[in-house]
Amino acid sequence: MSTIAPIIAIRLPAKGWQPPSAGERPASSLDDLTGADLIFVIGANPSSNHPRFIHMLKNCRERGGQVIIINPAKEPGLVKFAVPKSPRSMLQGGSEIASEYLQPRIGSDIALMKGLAKAVIKLGLEAEPFIASHSNGFADFRADIEALGWDEIEASSGISRAEIDHIARIYGAAENAVFAWGMGMTHHLHGVANVEAIANLALLRGMVGKRFAGLLPLRGHSNVQGIGTIGVKPVLAREVLAKMEAAFGVTFPAAKGMDTMACLEEAARGRIDCAIIMGGNLWGATPDQAFATQAMAAVGFKLFLTTTLNLGHVNGLGEGEALILPVTARDEEWQPTSQESMFNYVRLSDGGIKRVGNVRPESQILCDIGARILPNGPIDFAAFSQHRKVREAIAAIVPGMEQLGDIDVAKKEFHIRHRVLHTPAFGTPNGRANFVITPLPARTTGSLTLATIRSEGQFNTIIYEDADSYRGGARRDAVFLNRDDMAAFGVSDGQPITIRLGQRAHAGHRHHV
């Protein structure tokens, strides 16, 4: 049983809490939002994290559309927000964002989505022609939905049937609906099923494979989107893997590798001799700092490539050696780089700002290391120190990225091929979309569920201020609780409390308290 130091409790009229933003490959583009008459925003806080998107939500409301927010916490910036790009919005003290605001229990999104699907079907609002012509598995999906009782849906989600029916009618009346979600949906042990439940709801009314509608995962920044596109993800597509092996004349290991958490666990067991840690603050981003210190201290040699110093460079050093090499940021790169936006645009970034001192790009350092370790290997590391060579390889290997090869010459941004779906042709063997049955996660009783968030005065692991301007000036050590839960536990506003964790954190930093 671990303990967190006393924290201030502040009442918030919500069922719980969930981390903001950020998202999977979009099936919609930025332009699709201009014609949507209904936008769902699920498990995200775009007023804080996605300025271009919040502008689109404002525009949707102003042209008579609706915005349905689904988030355990009532974020003030999702109710009303002064959009900086709009002088009228700023002068009027803000624009109305949410037309409806649902606050489900933390981790109960699948129950809510299945409840909405059940209501849509009960009201006869499903898109029968689309389902018949462009989908598989609807009969089994419908049977699963009909077998789920309203008592279970209400108990799991904390949302009443009347509220769910109301939202289902709004959805049923919409011509073009976009479903957008952030990491509040994906940072769960059942994150994949969460997204599948959203996709099911979109398919139910034919809101995928048409213009001004679709699925839109929200990203924190372009790195998250771009690295997934080019293959830096847990499971590499077989087609991409085969093309890489053919291009470089190599055979990659077939055994399963380790993700970040697995690497830390192996390090804690003393099984990692050397680690190259690029960017960020791995130590600070690991929720259990005692574990992070132990794991990193056990690594014999650590090479950090970083733009700025952080606490991760001085904690967990242990008795081994650590080398910190400064590297250029994107706008300081010696050569043009490319980036992918949240809305599927790939564009060129010229860089060109000169940094004081002998600071080199990460790619230069990595290629130098590669050339020294494998001087006679199959990869020409000297050639790959040129960014254009890297882009040419990506263009030849990753489907949909063909235009990247000469983007430094064309200087024209592009959408990734087959990413935006404006026709109901899906990437399955028979071209149909698949309904997926998503079981409800087990409900916890007798305890609360804790979800951690990033405060407004924070960027990644960098803390700029302790007060959160978007949450009423709440301190970073504040805990937000439902008023009924506070009454049940005998807790009052501003009272210091101690949180005891009943089990170790898993994906999404969710704890039973």
TrEMBL record:
The keyword Lipoprotein does not apply. Residues 28-292 form the Molybdopterin oxidoreductase domain. Pfam families: Molybdopterin (PF00384). Keywords: Iron, Iron-sulfur, Metal-binding. The keyword Metal-binding applies. This is Molybdopterin-dependent oxidoreductase. It comes from Devosia algicola.
